[in-house]
TrEMBL record:
This is 40-residue YVTN family beta-propeller repeat protein. PANTHER family: DIHYDRO-HEME D1 DEHYDROGENASE (PTHR47197:SF3), PROTEIN NIRF (PTHR47197). InterPro entries: Haem_d1_sf, Host-pathogen_enzymatic-act, WD40/YVTN_repeat-like_dom_sf. It comes from the Bacteria. Coiled coil: none annotated.
């Protein structure tokens, strides 16, 4: 009995020591702000230049000060998913999943400027400075709508053969996009819109978040079903590494300064991976957040991470109309969480 107890204590001690050794980044919760209101959420984005946060929240975008979390205003939408602000043009773009369109807004007044029709279920979006275009990833339609960011005119919608999720640009004319249902990354030219390559992510399944290191040409695709971060060579699609991440991932960022990749997991964690060399990666931290905090944004000025969630209640029983029900959202508890290193 004594020997068994000693063995158990020794194993637990080793596990605790091993867990402690993985926490090497010093990243922790810096600030929590309750925004309130009702309804769900999706993406959050940071406008570094004017210090604004754009937070998706049901049928509106909450606009906050990135440093103080003070509320600046709101932008009405219909089922908001993604938001991006383009400082050089003085305007931003919002995907409205329920309305199948994009709202263009003035970044100073927050007033809507235009509505642009898309295909079904516009979800994530990407502004590409090289082509001065906005790419709208229509998940259910399996298409991408391309908008001229200057004129707000649709250039083209084209089929991609799968459900597009997050996308990234290499800044030189190439766009990479996760296809959630086919477990691929498509590669296309931002001006000709010709799909040049398809990278298979297997054993990665259900890719959602995507980040990119321009220096080493590495793609980081976070895959929800397989709970893996797939590191790929952006030039040829070769698998470089696969790393374990948390459950229900839906976002990824790359910190160029620190060579860190962070992915947010809806289970209530952020997985931090360190790029030790172009072909060497390891998990160095698992940060506890809160259940439902599935997406994240990165502030390159402060190197802080932002995520959003709310207090969640019970999950209703599945029905024919709703076979995959989500947990109930407790009204008034919607919150912003900011993570970083304490000064």
């Amino acid at each position: 009995m004594k020997r068994t107890l000693f063995t158990i204590l020794l194993v637990v001690s080793r596990q605790l020591c091993g867990f402690a050794q993985t926490h090497t980044t010093g990243i922790e919760l810096l600030k929590k702000t309750v925004i309130g209101g009702e309804g769900g959420w999706d993406y959050v984005s940071v406008s570094v230049e004017d210090r604004r946060l754009y937070v998706s929240h049901n049928n509106q975008v909450e606009v906050l000060n990135a440093d103080t979390h003070e509320k600046i205003g709101t932008i009405p939408t219909k089922g908001v998913h993604g938001i991006c602000a383009v400082q050089s043009l003085g305007k931003g773009f919002i995907t409205n999943g329920k309305a199948n369109n994009v709202t263009v807004f003035d970044i100073k007044t927050l007033q809507p400027l235009a509505q642009i029709a898309t295909d079904e279920d516009p979800d994530a979006l990407l502004y590409d400075k090289f082509s001065n275009r906005v790419f709208i990833f229509n998940n259910d339609a399996k298409t991408i709508t391309v908008i001229d960011a200057l004129t707000n005119k649709v250039i083209k919608s084209f089929s991609v053969g799968g459900n597009p999720e997050a996308g990234v640009s290499d800044g030189a004319g190439t766009i990479y996009v996760n296809l959630e249902d086919t477990n691929e990354i498509i590669v296309f030219n931002s001006k000709t819109l010709v799909i040049k390559k398809r990278f298979t992510l297997t054993p990665g399944e259900q890719p959602t978040g995507l980040a990119y290191d321009k220096e080493t040409h590495r793609l980081f695709s976070t895959c929800r079903k397989s709970q893996l971060m797939m590191v790929m060579d952006a030039d040829n699609g070769k698998e470089i590494a696969r790393l374990p991440i948390g459950k229900l991932t839906d976002g990824a960022i790359f910190n160029e300064q620190a060579k860190l990749i962070a992915c947010s997991n809806g289970e209530g964690t952020i997985t931090i991976v360190k790029e030790l060399a172009p072909d060497k990666f390891e998990v160095v931290d698992t940060i506890v957040t809160a259940r439902g905090a599935k997406t994240l944004a990165f502030d390159s000025k402060t190197e802080h991470l932002y995520t959003v969630t709310a207090q969640l209640g019970d999950t209703p029983a599945p029905t024919a109309a709703n076979p995959k029900p989500r947990p109930a959202i407790i009204p008034g508890t919607f919150m912003l969480l900011e993570y970083g290193k304490k000064l």
